[in-house]
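Figure 3 (text version): C-alpha cells given as input.
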C-alpha cells in the first residue's frame, strides 16, 4: 500500500467541504424547507417534506458515500482507497472539482490508468483546457502512449500560435520534469517533425537532449533552430554550451563572446559566458566579465562573492580582501567571507590574522573546515601537540555526533601528514569506542592500516562496513583496489571493484581501480581503456602513474616517459611518481 501524509495531499487538492448544507453542481437536494429550529419557533407552521424520486436519492446517497469514504481514507493516509472512492465519485457527479480532485489523487498515487479516467471525465465536464491538456498529455506519456500524448501537447502548441515561443516553452517546462527523458524526447520529436520550420521546437528539443547528456544532438538541434531563426540568441547559447560539453572549448567560448558583444545588455547571457569561462579555468577572462556584471549590479552579494573567489584564485589578495570585507560589512555570507579572509591571510603567512578570521566562522558550512585550518596552523607554529589539544577541546564543545566524528577525522589527517600511522589508528580506535561501528572511522582506520601493510586489519574494518552496508562503494573499491595493488586474491578483488563500479559508474577512482585490476590480470587493452577514461575524468597523480606503469609493461617506453613528464609537471612532489621515475631510470 502506498502511504503518504494526507495533510500534504490536502494542500494539493481542492477542498471539498463536508458539512451540513454540502452542495455539488448537478446534485439534487433531498430536503428543502425550514429548519427544525424555525418550525419549533412557530408551532402553527407545518413541516413540508417534498418527495424526491428514489433514483435521484440513490445517486446522491452513493455520491456522498464515496466522497466521505474518500476523505476518511485520506485522513488515514490510505491513498489507494481514497483514489478508488474519488474515481467512483467522479463517475457519479457532474461537478468538475470532484473529477479534478480524483485526477490529482491519482497523480500523487502514480496510478496513471485511474488518472486518465478521472482527467478525461474532468475534460468532458469543462471542455478544452490547456491545464487539462497538460495533465492528459503527461498521463498518456507516463502510460507509454506517446502518440496519444502528442495529441494533447500539440493542442498546447497550437493554442499559443500568436506567440510561437510560448507553446514550446510550456511543453519544455513540462517535459523537463518527466522522469523518462527518452519517452519525452520521442514525443517532442513527433511535434518537431510535424512543424519542422518552427525554430522553438528545435530549441526545446536541443534543451531536452542537453539535459539527457546527448550533446551532439543538442548542438545539431540548436543549429536547426538557427537555420530558421538566425537571431535566436537562446539557440546560440545552447549550441555553445553543447560544444563546451563536447570539449570544443575554444569554439564554444568564441561563439559566446560574439553573442555577448552583440547583446551586451543581456545580463543572463553574459552570466552564462562568465560561468563557461570559469568552467574552462580561464579565470582572468572570467574576472573581467564578472567585473562588468558587478559594475551593473554593485549590491549583488553573489557577484561580490564570486569576484572574491576569483581574486583569491588569481592571488589578487588585496582585491579579494576588499571583496570579502565588503560582504562582512553588509552582513551577507559572513561565514564564507571570514573563512576566505582567513585563507587570504594564511596564504600571506599572516597566521594570527588567519586564526582570528577562522575563529569568526560560526557553526555552519565552513565551521569545521575553519577549525581544521586552525589546527594545521598550530602544527606549523607550535607543534602537533598544540593542534591535538585544540582539536580535543573542540570535540568536547560539540554536541553533534557527526561533527565529533569529523574532528576525529581531521586530527587523523594531521597525524597522517606527519606519517604517524599507528598513532592515527589508535585515535580512530578511540573514536570507535565512542561511536561503535561508525563507517567513516572504520574506513579511515582501514586506510591507516594499509600504510603499515596490515592488510588483515584493513580487510577486517572494510568487511565490518560491508556487513552493515553491502553496497558501500567506498569500502568495496578500497578493498578491491588494495588487494589488487598488493597482488593478493586478484579474482576476488575484481568482484569487489565490479560491484563498486555498478554503484558508481562515473567515479574516476573506481574506474581507475578497474583499470588497475585489469593490469594485474594482464588484460592490458582493457586496463588502458579504463585508466585513460579515469585520467580524462580526473587528472590525478596516482592515475597518471598507473598509466605510466601500463605503458612501460607494454614496452611503450616512449609513451611511458611522455606520460611521466606530463604528470610530474602537475605533481612534482608526488612520492609515488618520484619512486616510479627512479625505478625506470635504473
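Below: residues designed for each position.
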Amino acid at each position: 500500500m502506498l502511504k503518504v501524509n494526507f495533510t500534504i495531499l490536502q494542500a494539493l487538492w481542492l477542498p471539498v467541504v463536508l458539512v451540513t448544507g454540502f452542495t455539488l453542481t448537478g446534485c439534487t437536494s433531498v430536503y428543502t424547507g425550514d429548519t427544525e429550529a424555525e418550525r419549533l419557533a412557530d408551532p402553527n407552521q407545518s413541516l413540508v417534506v417534498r418527495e424526491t424520486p428514489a433514483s435521484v436519492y440513490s445517486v446522491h446517497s452513493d455520491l456522498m458515500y464515496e466522497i466521505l469514504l474518500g476523505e476518511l481514507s485520506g485522513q488515514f493516509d490510505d491513498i489507494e482507497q481514497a483514489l478508488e472512492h474519488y474515481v467512483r465519485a467522479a463517475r457519479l457527479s457532474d461537478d468538475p472539482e470532484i473529477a479534478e480532485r480524483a485526477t490529482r489523487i491519482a497523480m500523487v498515487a502514480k496510478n496513471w490508468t485511474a488518472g486518465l479516467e478521472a482527467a478525461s471525465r474532468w475534460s468532458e465536464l469543462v471542455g478544452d483546457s490547456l491545464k487539462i491538456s497538460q495533465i492528459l498529455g503527461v498521463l498518456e506519456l507516463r502510460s507509454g502512449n506517446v502518440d496519444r500524448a502528442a495529441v494533447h501537447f500539440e493542442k498546447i502548441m497550437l493554442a499559443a500560435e500568436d506567440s510561437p515561443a510560448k507553446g514550446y516553452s510550456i511543453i519544455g517546462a513540462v517535459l523537463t520534469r518527466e522522469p523518462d527523458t527518452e519517452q519525452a524526447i520521442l514525443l517532442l520529436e513527433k511535434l518537431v517533425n510535424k512543424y519542422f520550420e518552427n525554430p522553438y521546437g528545435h530549441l526545446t528539443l536541443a534543451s531536452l537532449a542537453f539535459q539527457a547528456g546527448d550533446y551532439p544532438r543538442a548542438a545539431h538541434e540548436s543549429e536547426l533552430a538557427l537555420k530558421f531563426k538566425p537571431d535566436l540568441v537562446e539557440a546560440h547559447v545552447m549550441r555553445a554550451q553543447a560544444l563546451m560539453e563536447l570539449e570544443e572549448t575554444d569554439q564554444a567560448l568564441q561563439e559566446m563572446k560574439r553573442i555577448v558583444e552583440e547583446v551586451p545588455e543581456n545580463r543572463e547571457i553574459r552570466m552564462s559566458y562568465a560561468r563557461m569561462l570559469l568552467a574552462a579555468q580561464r579565470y582572468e577572462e572570467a574576472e573581467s566579465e564578472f567585473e562588468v556584471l558587478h559594475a551593473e549590479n554593485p549590491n549583488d552579494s553573489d557577484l561580490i562573492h564570486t569576484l572574491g573567489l576569483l581574486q583569491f584564485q588569481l592571488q589578487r589578495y588585496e582585491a579579494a580582501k576588499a571583496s570579502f570585507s565588503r560582504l562582512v560589512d553588509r552582513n551577507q555570507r559572513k561565514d564564507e567571507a571570514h573563512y576566505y579572509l582567513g585563507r587570504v591571510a594564511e596564504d600571506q603567512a599572516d597566521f594570527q590574522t588567519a586564526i582570528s578570521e577562522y575563529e569568526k566562522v560560526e557553526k555552519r558550512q565552513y565551521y569545521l573546515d575553519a577549525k581544521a585550518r586552525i589546527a594545521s596552523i598550530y602544527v606549523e607554529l607550535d607543534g602537533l601537540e598544540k593542534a591535538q589539544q585544540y582539536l580535543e577541546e573542540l570535540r568536547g564543545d560539540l554536541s553533534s555526533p557527526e561533527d565529533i566524528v569529523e574532528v576525529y577525522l581531521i586530527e587523523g589527517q594531521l597525524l597522517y601528514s606527519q606519517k604517524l600511522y599507528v598513532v592515527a589508528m589508535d585515535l580512530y580506535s578511540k573514536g570507535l569506542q565512542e561511536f561503535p561501528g561508525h563507517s567513516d572511522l572504520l574506513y579511515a582506520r582501514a586506510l591507516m592500516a594499509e600504510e603499515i601493510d596490515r592488510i588483515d586489519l584493513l580487510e577486517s574494518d572494510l568487511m565490518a562496513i560491508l556487513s552493515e552496508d553491502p553496497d558501500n562503494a567506498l569500502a568495496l573499491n578500497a578493498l578491491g583496489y588494495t588487494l589488487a595493488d598488493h597482488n593478493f586474491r586478484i579474482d576476488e578483488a575484481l568482484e569487489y571493484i565490479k560491484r563498486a563500479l555498478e554503484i558508481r559508474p562515473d567515479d574516476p577512482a573506481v574506474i581507475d581501480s578497474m583499470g588497475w585490476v585489469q593490469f594485474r590480470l594482464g588484460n592490458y587493452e582493457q586496463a588502458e581503456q579504463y585508466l585513460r577514461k579515469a585520467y580524462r575524468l580526473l587528472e590525478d597523480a596516482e592515475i597518471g602513474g598507473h598509466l605510466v606503469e601500463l605503458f612501460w609493461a607494454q614496452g611503450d617506453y616512449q609513451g611511458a616517459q611522455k606520460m611521466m613528464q606530463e604528470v610530474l609537471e602537475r605533481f612534482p612532489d608526488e612520492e609515488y611518481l618520484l619512486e616510479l621515475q627512479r625505478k625506470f631510470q635504473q
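Residues 1-57 have pLDDT under 50 and may be disordered.
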